[in-house]
Amino acid sequence: MKYIKKSEEPESFTVWKNLANEDWQPSWDNFSQPQKTDVHNSLLQEQGFICCYCGRRITKDISHIEHLKPRKTHHNLALEYTNLLASCQRERERKEPLHCGSKKDEWYDENLMVSPLDINCTEFFRYTEDGQILSTEILDKKPAADTTIDKLDLNIDKLKKMRSDAIEGILEGFEELTKDDRQRLLQAFCQPDDNGQNEEFCAAIVYILKNYF
After folding, report:
1. Nearest to residue 81, comparing CAs of 91, 69, 90, 73?
2. How far apart, in whole angstroms, are the C-alpha atoms of residue 58 and residue 64?
3. How large a percentage of the chain has pLDDT more than 90?
4. CA-CA distances (angstroms) from residue 161 to 76, 128, 132, 164?
5. Any bridge partners for residue 33, and if so which?
6. What angle do CA 39, 41, 43 make, to 5 degrees?
7. Contacts of 4 (CB under 8 A, 6+ apart)
8. What are 35-85's pLDDT values in tens digits?
9. Mean predicted confidence (pLDDT) in 97-125
């Protein structure tokens, strides 16, 4: 999981919500194009085109707008931009296991959900070179980390394989690099590239690379 710094909501979204009057109120049910596309694109850009939870590469076609705090229990936040994220698995293949926002569904616990909007969210997790995501050893953070991994199914075989492949590709030849080159490589994974894209599974990669310093 990588920290997401929220940006300002799209102007078209603000204008649309401000059209509210006695006869019409904006709601999730009447939220449609072009405002919905503008919001979706904005979420993708501020996340560097990776899933808000697992960190895999996403585009508009394979992601959906996710409510961090579910609409069912937080009606007043349904159109609150700070509650919106972009998650993977807009659609899934037959028998593909649910994970991330699709698995989370209507679950949310203020004390046990690690939010990607928490600037310290990376401190809750550890990663292994074989692709596992584990909870931190910090005792007061461990319950939330364990629960979030379980509720979002972040350790399913599919995601472990994808993380492992990404890590393996980066580590190949890493030990032969100079200390300065290693540092430059690490920094490259800590921020978006020139196209505004974060590396897929960059949080896991950064964690692993730091172990080599």
Report:
1. 69
2. 10
3. 93
4. 38, 11, 9, 5
5. none
6. 70
7. 46, 47, 52, 85, 116, 117
8. 999 999 999 999 999 999 999 999 999 999 999 999 999 999 999 999 999
9. 97
